[in-house]
Q: What sequence folds into this?
């Protein structure tokens, strides 16, 4: 079942079209990546889901029915541009933001205590925000985002500005949230984290959806039959043997140990390739290379930019 | 400010009375060198100033020796003053007080006037002059109550009160309006606004900020009223109850001289002056004025604060605020100038029209309130004000909603207009 859907969402600003009939289908209890270059319209879509702005046309379906005003209490949002009141004390501020999300004072205090202890930030309670480092502030923002146990979590560029240790902590927390039943939508430029975390993605470029689907299927769909082949033996001979159905794109040789990248042509299979070289090389490894999300991203975006030149 | 304000206001009531009862009582001896030999003893001594005519002193030496000889200052008259009015100079190492200067020039002028009059050789001139000097008109202003009762009012005091009202509104609106602008800008620059607007609507956030600061302002104002009333009451019980050690003296040197002949009957002390001011202040409709003040303060504040909020949402730093602040501040500043004219003619056309224009009415109408303007004018002006602040709040809300989420963009008026038109849902 889809937990969150965007149907034909259009948003115009004064001088440009931010979203052009964008669709989104986020399955329940999944981690969904919203990708796209800067200025593609990701933040606009996220703001529409958060009801910060409204769409010009189209609709958002939340948990099976059109999005309603008090759904903000069931959504947690960590914006890309995030800040806190600098002069306010950490605890007071966390309490204030939690109560804006509809928690009672009692519940908010109880939950804050739990999270502050979990992240070992209890001693910061009475400190002013301006005394904290940026990483510390981000921990607090994260706590405030998840505190009211929202069914849907939206993270806009969550990893920007985190050091590797905190980024890893954040990753673990996102996975834990999923395990506890939340649905997570996040937008990022960090393709490594997309491969690690996401089940599904949608790629937006120039206000339009240009790619959507399950991440494994997409990677399969964009593979270009490239094999990574480790061997020792005569390089020239191997090139000779692979002529015809295969194209050797690159060979790296270190101390007589070769790594070749071989493209399979004419519906050739890995088995065919093994057959061709088995008598002339000592095979150390053979592996199909799936394109990284990074490669796919660049390829798809550049392709769509070419087919749709700037007016 | 909370404590300082009431002390300041109490001082405004107490100090004029105190100043009036105070004078410069240190004696001064002043040497006069008259090189023309025409003006001997023309400048009269007073209780505290004595003038000595030195005959044969060299101008060059006096500047070194006058202090040694016990003079506080010296005057040199170089030429015939009828031909060269600026040929008299006062020298001193301390600043010459205004009173001394006035005393010297007035004595000389009177002497010259007399000389001229004498040159016409009119018979019985002295009698005529004395006759002329006895003519004196004292206008008292009486305010008629609705029941026909008469209260003596003081035009000067009404002007003073209306000036204070006008200035207070001006001061409050700017102070708290700018506070709204800063608050909005801070939230935007901090980027916390994006977190908050995912929980509440931008319009709610803006109104929350405006109303919150309004409540701070009202609390502050009421505190001032109560504390001022407290301090004034305290002073009045202390002084009006006990008059024995208050110096019974009044006015500057000149007044002392003219009054000397009338006897001491008109000389009033601090406690009488103060009692006077207090009585006249109480003759103003305090409750009505307070209500009008609160209304115009809140109305004017809401009108301007919403505009300030829109400016705060449009800018990224305070330095950018100038170009947008100017058109907002302008009507306020102009109001103060118009108010100056309104004090003199509180029922004129100028006063009427500018107390209808909502951008100036909070200040102008408040300046008129002590003069009891017609009720229908006040009601009309209030209605226009309310209608306008509803409009500006709506207008600013649209700009605000777009502005708070626009970072790092240099904003022009054209851009603001676009935000307003395309504010969407």
A:
């Amino acid at each position: 079942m889809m937990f969150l859907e965007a149907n034909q969402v259009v948003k115009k600003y004064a001088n440009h079209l931010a979203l052009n009939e964008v669709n989104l289908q986020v399955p329940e209890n999944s981690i969904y990546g919203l990708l796209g270059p800067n200025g593609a319209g990701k933040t606009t879509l996220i703001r529409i889901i958060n009801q910060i702005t409204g769409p010009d046309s189209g609709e958002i379906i939340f948990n099976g029915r059109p999005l309603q005003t008090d759904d903000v209490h069931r959504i947690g949002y960590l914006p890309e541009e995030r800040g806190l009141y600098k002069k306010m004390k950490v605890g007071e501020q966390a309490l204030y933001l939690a109560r804006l999300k509809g928690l009672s004072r009692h519940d908010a205090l109880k939950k804050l205590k739990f999270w502050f202890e979990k992240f070992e930030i209890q001693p910061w309670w009475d400190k002013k925000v301006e005394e904290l480092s940026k990483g510390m502030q981000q921990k607090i923002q994260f706590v405030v985002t998840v505190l009211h146990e929202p069914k849907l979590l939206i993270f806009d560029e969550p990893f920007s500005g985190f050091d590797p240790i905190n980024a890893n902590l954040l990753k673990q927390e996102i996975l834990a949230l999923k395990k506890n039943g939340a649905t997570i939508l996040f937008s990022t430029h960090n393709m490594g984290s997309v491969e690690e975390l996401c089940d599904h993605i949608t790629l937006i470029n120039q206000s339009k959806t240009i790619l959507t689907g399950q991440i494994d299927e997409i990677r399969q769909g964009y593979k270009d039959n490239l094999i990574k082949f480790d061997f020792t033996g005569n390089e020239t001979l191997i090139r000779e043997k692979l002529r015809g159905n295969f194209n050797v794109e690159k060979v790296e040789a270190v101390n007589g140990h070769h790594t070749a990248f071989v493209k399979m042509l004419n519906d050739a299979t890995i088995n065919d390739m093994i057959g061709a070289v088995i008598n002339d090389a000592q095979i150390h490894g053979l592996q199909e290379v799936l394109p990284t999300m990074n490669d796919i991203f660049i390829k798809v975006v550049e392709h769509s930019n070419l087919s749709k030149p700037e007016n | 400010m909370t404590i300082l304000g009431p002390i300041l206001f109490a001082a405004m009531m107490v100090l004029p009375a105190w100043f009036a009862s105070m004078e410069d009582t240190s004696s001064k001896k002043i040497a006069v060198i008259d090189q023309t030999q025409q003006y001997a003893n023309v400048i009269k001594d007073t209780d505290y100033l004595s003038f000595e005519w030195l005959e044969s002193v060299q101008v060059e030496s006096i500047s070194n020796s006058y202090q040694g000889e016990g003079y506080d200052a010296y005057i040199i008259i170089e030429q015939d003053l009828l031909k060269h009015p600026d040929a008299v100079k006062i020298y001193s190492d301390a600043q010459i007080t205004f009173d001394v200067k006035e005393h010297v020039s007035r004595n000389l002028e009177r002497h010259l006037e007399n000389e001229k009059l004498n040159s016409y050789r009119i018979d019985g001139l002295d009698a005529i002059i004395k006759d002329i000097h006895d003519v004196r008109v004292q206008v008292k202003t009486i305010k008629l109550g609705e029941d026909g009762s008469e209260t003596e009012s003081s035009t000067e005091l009404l002007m003073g009160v209306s000036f204070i009202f006008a200035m207070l509104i001006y001061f409050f609106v700017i102070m708290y309006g700018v506070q709204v602008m800063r608050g909005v800008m801070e939230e935007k620059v901090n980027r916390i606004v994006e977190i908050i607007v995912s929980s509440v609507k931008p319009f709610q956030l803006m109104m929350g900020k405006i109303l919150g600061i309004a409540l701070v302002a009202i609390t502050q104002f009421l505190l001032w009223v109560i504390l001022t009333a407290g301090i004034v009451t305290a002073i009045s019980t202390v002084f009006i109850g006990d008059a024995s050690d208050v110096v019974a003296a009044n006015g500057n040197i000149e007044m002392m001289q003219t009054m000397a002949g009338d006897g001491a009957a008109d000389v009033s002390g601090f406690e009488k002056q103060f009692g006077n001011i207090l009585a006249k202040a109480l003759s103003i409709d305090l409750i009505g004025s307070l209500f009008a003040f609160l209304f115009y303060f809140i109305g004017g504040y809401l009108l301007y604060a919403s505009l300030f909020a829109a400016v705060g949402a449009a800018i990224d730093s305070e330095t950018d605020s100038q170009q947008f602040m100017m058109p907002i501040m302008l009507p306020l500043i102009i109001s103060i100038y118009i108010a100056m004219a309104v004090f003199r003619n509180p029922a004129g056309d100028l006063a009427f029209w500018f107390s209808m224009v909502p951008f100036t009415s909070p200040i102008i109408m408040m300046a008129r309130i002590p003069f009891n303007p017609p009720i229908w004018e006040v009601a009309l002006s209030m209605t226009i004000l309310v209608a306008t602040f509803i409009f500006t709040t709506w207008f600013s809300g649209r700009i605000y909603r777009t502005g708070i989420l626009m970072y790092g963009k240099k904003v022009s008026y054209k851009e603001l207009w676009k935000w307003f038109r395309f504010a969407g849902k």
